[in-house]
Write a structure and sequence with these properties.
single chain; 11-stranded mixed β-sheet; globular
C-alpha cells in the first residue's frame, strides 16, 4: 500500500484551531452519558449512597428474619438499590458501571431496567425464601439471621439477561466471565450476597434466552483450540485466585473455604481444638503461631500462585504450563489425602453441619484437584507448544542451583544464629528443617515443628528463605514460557513460485518481502504468508492457493498458528476469504478500501476524466516523460535520485517509515516489480511509483500500486501523471486489473457511520495517523480515477485479543520505531480519543 504523495497531504491544523483537551474530554463524557444513561444514573446513585450512609441502611437489608419475621416487605427491592457498606458501594461502582455499559449496548433500556430492578428484586425474594427453608434444618438456624444489601445482585441479573441479545462470541464470553466469577465467589467467599449473585446469574441467563427467542441448537459445540485453552486456563486460574481472594476477605464461609486451612499460616480452629486436647498437628500449629508473618503467609499460598502462573502459560498453549498445573494439583491432592489420614483435618460446626462440611471438604480438597488433573490429561494435545531444549536445561540448572544455594544459606545462617532458637537444633535437625523451609506451612503437617527461632535474623531467615526461592522459580517459569520452539523462516522462493502459479489476490506479492514467514500445506499446493509479532501471527492478505483450496489453506494456517500458541489473524483480505473465516465464527472489521481500475476501459476523455487529464496534459507540455522500467535497468543517477526522494519523504514524518504492507526502496529492487518514473527534460526524477505483479492461474493479469513518492520541487499533478501513464501502459500490455491498493484504516464515506467502540477506535487511529501519513487524503486522491471499490478486512478469532492484535499491528507497521516514536504516536491518538 502506498504512502501519500505530497500533493495529497493535508495541511496541519493550526494550534489555535485545535479543540482544547478539556472541551474534548467533556464532549466524550457527554457522549458516554447519552449512550449509557442507565449506567450513568446507577454510578451516580451508588456514589451518593456510599458517601451519605447512615444507620438507616440496616432497614434496607433483606434476609429471612429481616424480611419475613420482622415484616420488612420493602427490603427485597431496597437490597438491590442500596449498598450495606461503603466497600459494597465502591465495588458496585467499579464493577457495576462497566457491566451496565456493556448491557445497554445490547438491550434496550426498558428491558434492562426490568432486569435490573425487577429481576434483582425477584432474585432476592427467592433467596429469602430459600434461606428461610435452610434455617429450619437442624444446626442451620443461624442462617436465617444473615441479611444482605448488594446492588451487584441486580446488575448481574441485568447483564446476564443482556448477554442473550449479544453476538455469539460476546454472549459466550460474558456468560463465562460472569458465571465463573459468581461461582468462585459462592464457593470461596460463601456469604449470602455471593450465593444470591450466582442465583441472579442463573435467573438472568434464563430471562435473556426467553427474550432472545432463539432456536435451540442441537449440535454439540466442540470449540476451537484457542477457545479450549481459554476455558481450561480460566478454570485453573479460578482455583488459584478464588482461595487467595477469600483469604484476603477473611477466609470465607463457602463449601470450599474449609480447604483454606491447608494454606493459612495460622488456623484458629485448630488452635482452639489444641487448647482442649492434643492433636498431632498441635506442635506444628504452635510453631506457625510464633513464626507467622508476611513471609510465611506468602509461602502458604505458593500452590495457588503456581496455579495462576500455570493458567498464564496454558492460555498460550505451553506444555511446560500443563506440566506445572498437573504437578501442582497432584501435590494438592496428595497433601489433602495425607492430612485426612493423619487426622489433621478440622471442620467447623456440630452434627449435620459438621458432616456436611466434611463431605464438602472432600469434594473441594480431593475431587476438585483430581477432576482438574483429569481434564488436563484429556486435553493434553491442546497444549503442544514446547520450550526449546536449551531453555529447559537452563531452567532446570537455574532452579537446582538456586535451591541448593538458598538451602546452604539457611543451614549456615541458622547454625551461626542457633542461639535465637527455643531449642538449639542438631546438624541433622537443621538439615531437615532447611528442606522444610521451601514447603508451604500447613500444607502437610511435618514432624520437627517444635524447634524454631524466636527473634532476630534467625527468624527473618526462617520466614523469607522459602519465599525468595519461589520468587526465583516463578520468574524462571515465566521465562521458560517465552522460549518456545518455532520453525525456521522459510525461503520466499517456493512462495514466489506459488504466488505466480495460483491466485493470491492483488496483495499476494507482499508476502515475498523480507520479514515474512510462510506456512505451506502438506502437498505444497497452498501457502499463507504471515508476520509474527508478539505472539500474533498476522497473515498478509489472501492465501496463495487455487479457489478450490482456499478454505483448506485458511483452516490449515489457523491450526498451525494455534499449535504454536500464536493468535492467528488475517489482515487485508478480500470478501472471499472473509466469508470463509466468518463461517468459522470469526469476527471482521474493514481496515482499508482498495481502489481498482480496469486498464482495458481506462480513458482520459470526457468530463469525468478532466481531473486527471488536465495535470497529465500539463506535464507533457512541460516536457515530462514517463519511464516504465525495473530497478536493475535504471541508471545510477536515477537510483540515486529515487533514494534521495525516499529519504526526504521519510525525514518529514514524525514516525519512521512504515513497513508490513507498505513497501519502500528495498521492495522496489525486486526484479518482478515494475517502476513508473516521471523524468523531466534535464533527466531529473520528479516522482516514482512502484507496481507489484498480480497473477492468476500462472498468468500475469495486472499490477498493484505500492510506493508513490515525488520530489519536493516537483510540480503539482505529477502523481496523476504517473498513475495515468501506468494505466495507459498496462492497457497497451493487455493487463486485466490495476489496483491502486488500499488506504489503511479508511472506508468509503458512503458506507455510513462506523459500528461500535472497536470501529470508533479505528476511526481515532486513522485520525491520529492522518497528519503523519495522510491515508484519508490518499483515498480522496484516488477517487479522481473513478475506480471500483473493494473492502479489505481484518478477520480475527476473538475480540478479547484485539489489544494484543492492535499492538502487534503497530509494531509490524513501525518495526523500527523507538520508544519516543511510540509515545508520540500514543499522544496523538490519546488527544483524539479524550
Amino acid at each position: 500500500m502506498p504512502q501519500v504523495p505530497a500533493s495529497a497531504e493535508t495541511l496541519p491544523v493550526p494550534a489555535g484551531d485545535r479543540p482544547r483537551p478539556a472541551g474534548e474530554t467533556a464532549a466524550a463524557l457527554r457522549r458516554m452519558i447519552f449512550a449509557s444513561p442507565l449506567a450513568t444514573i446507577f454510578g451516580v446513585w451508588m456514589l451518593l449512597a456510599t458517601v451519605f450512609h447512615g444507620p438507616w441502611r440496616a432497614l434496607m437489608a433483606a434476609g429471612a428474619d429481616a424480611t419475613l419475621s420482622q415484616l420488612r416487605w420493602w427490603t427485597p427491592l431496597t437490597a438491590v438499590v442500596v449498598p450495606d457498606s461503603a466497600i459494597t458501594g465502591t465495588v458496585a461502582v467499579i464493577i457495576g458501571v462497566p457491566l451496565l455499559i456493556f448491557a445497554e449496548r445490547h438491550l434496550r433500556e426498558s428491558r434492562l431496567l426490568i432486569a435490573l430492578a425487577g429481576g434483582g428484586t425477584a432474585v432476592v425474594l427467592l433467596g429469602v425464601f430459600i434461606q428461610a427453608g435452610i434455617a429450619r434444618i437442624p444446626d442451620f438456624s443461624h442462617v436465617g439471621t444473615v441479611s444482605v444489601a448488594d446492588p451487584l445482585i441486580g446488575v448481574i441479573c441485568a447483564v446476564s439477561a443482556a448477554a442473550g441479545a449479544a453476538p455469539t462470541l460476546w454472549r459466550r464470553r460474558s456468560r463465562l466471565i460472569i458465571g465463573l466469577g459468581a461461582v468462585a465467589a459462592a464457593l470461596y467467599a460463601g456469604d449470602l450476597s455471593s450465593w444470591l449473585s450466582l442465583l441472579a446469574f442463573l435467573v438472568g441467563t434464563i430471562v435473556g434466552e426467553l427474550w432472545a427467542a432463539r432456536t435451540p441448537q442441537t449440535t454439540w459445540w466442540r470449540g476451537s483450540q484457542h477457545e479450549r485453552r481459554t476455558l481450561i486456563a480460566g478454570a485453573v486460574a479460578v482455583l488459584g485466585i478464588g482461595p487467595i481472594a477469600a483469604l484476603v476477605n477473611g477466609g470465607g464461609r463457602g463449601p470450599l473455604s474449609v480447604v483454606l486451612g491447608a494454606y493459612s499460616d495460622f488456623d484458629q480452629r485448630i488452635s482452639a481444638r489444641c487448647a482442649s486436647h492434643y492433636l498431632p498437628i498441635c506442635d506444628h500449629q504452635n510453631m506457625l503461631f510464633v513464626t507467622r508473618g508476611l513471609g510465611p503467609a506468602l509461602l502458604a499460598i505458593v500452590p495457588l500462585i503456581l496455579l495462576v502462573v500455570a493458567a498464564i502459560g496454558l492460555l498460550a498453549g505451553r506444555r511446560s504450563a500443563w506440566v506445572l498445573a498437573i504437578g501442582t494439583n497432584g501435590v494438592l491432592f496428595l497433601a489433602a489425602f495425607g492430612s485426612a489420614l493423619a487426622g489433621s483435618v478440622v471442620v467447623a460446626g456440630e452434627g449435620t453441619q459438621q458432616f456436611l462440611e466434611a463431605v464438602l471438604w472432600g469434594i473441594g480438597a480431593l475431587a476438585l484437584p483430581a477432576a482438574t488433573i483429569l481434564v488436563l490429561v484429556l486435553t493434553r494435545s491442546v497444549f503442544s507448544v514446547r520450550s526449546t531444549r536449551a531453555a529447559v536445561h537452563r531452567f532446570a540448572l537455574a532452579v537446582t542451583i538456586c535451591f541448593a544455594s538458598f538451602a546452604v544459606v539457611f543451614f549456615v545462617g541458622e547454625w551461626v544464629l542457633r542461639g535465637s532458637w527455643n531449642q538449639a537444633p542438631t546438624s541433622g535437625e537443621l538439615l531437615g528443617d532447611a528442606l522444610r523451609r521451601f514447603l508451604p506451612p500447613g500444607l502437610v503437617p511435618l514432624p520437627g515443628g517444635s524447634r524454631f527461632p524466636h527473634h532476630g535474623p534467625g527468624l527473618f531467615l526462617w520466614q523469607w528463605v522459602g519465599v525468595a526461592f519461589w520468587a526465583v522459580f516463578v520468574s524462571a517459569v515465566l521465562r521458560l514460557f517465552a522460549r518456545t520452539r518455532t520453525e525456521q523462516v522459510a525461503s520466499s522462493d517456493p512462495y514466489r513460485t506459488l504466488v505466480a502459479t495460483t491466485d493470491a489476490g492483488t496483495l499476494g506479492w507482499l508476502g515475498t518481502w523480507e520479514g515474512a514467514r510462510h506456512w505451506f500445506s502438506d502437498d505444497g499446493a497452498a501457502a499463507v504468508a504471515y508476520r509474527l509479532q508478539g505472539g500474533v501471527a498476522i497473515a498478509i492478505s489472501d492465501p496463495a492457493a487455487d479457489e478450490a483450496r482456499r478454505e483448506d489453506a485458511v483452516r490449515g494456517f489457523i491450526e498451525f498458528a494455534s499449535a504454536h500458541g500464536w493468535i492467528p489473524v488475517f489482515y487485508s483480505v478480500h470478501d472471499d476469504t472473509r466469508k470463509i473465516l466468518e463461517s468459522l465464527g470469526w469476527s471482521s472489521m474493514p481496515v482499508a478500501e482498495e481502489t481498482v481500475l480496469h486498464p482495458g476501459t481506462f480513458t482520459l476523455a470526457g468530463k469525468a476524466g478532466e481531473k486527471v487529464r488536465h495535470p497529465v496534459t500539463r506535464m507533457r507540455r512541460e516536457g515530462v516523460a514517463p519511464l516504465w522500467t525495473t530497478w536493475a535497468a535504471l541508471s545510477r543517477s536515477h537510483t540515486r535520485q529515487i533514494r534521495e526522494i525516499s529519504e526526504h519523504w521519510a525525514s518529514e514524518k514524525a514516525l519512521p517509515e512504515m513497513g508490513f504492507t507498505l513497501g519502500s526502496v528495498p521492495e522496489m529492487q525486486d526484479p518482478a516489480v515494475r517502476l513508473m518514473l516521471a523524468v523531466a527534460a534535464d533527466d531529473t526524477v520528479l516522482g516514482v511509483t512502484s507496481w507489484v505483479p498480480v497473477h492468476r492461474g500462472g498468468a500475469l493479469v495486472g499490477w498493484t500500486l505500492d510506493v508513490m513518492r515525488r520530489a519536493p520541487e516537483s510540480p503539482n499533478g505529477v502523481m496523476e501523471f504517473l498513475i495515468a501513464s501506468a494505466a495507459l501502459q498496462m492497457q497497451q500490455d493487455g493487463a486485466e486489473i490495476l489496483s491502486l491498493s488500499g488506504a489503511p484504516l479508511v472506508q468509503q464515506e458512503e458506507t455510513g457511520p462506523r459500528r461500535g467502540s472497536i470501529d470508533g477506535l479505528l476511526a481515532s487511529l486513522s485520525a491520529a495517523l492522518e497528519p503523519l501519513y495522510g491515508f484519508a487524503s490518499l483515498f480522496r486522491f484516488k477517487k479522481k480515477f473513478r475506480p471500483e471499490y473493494a473492502t479489505l478486512s481484518m478477520v480475527y478469532p476473538d475480540p478479547v485479543e484485539l489489544p494484543a492484535i492492535g499492538y502487534a499491528l503497530v509494531r509490524t507497521y513501525l518495526p523500527t520505531a523507538s520508544g519516543r516514536h511510540l509515545v508520540e504516536f500514543a499522544r496523538g491518538l490519546f488527544e483524539r480519543r479524550s
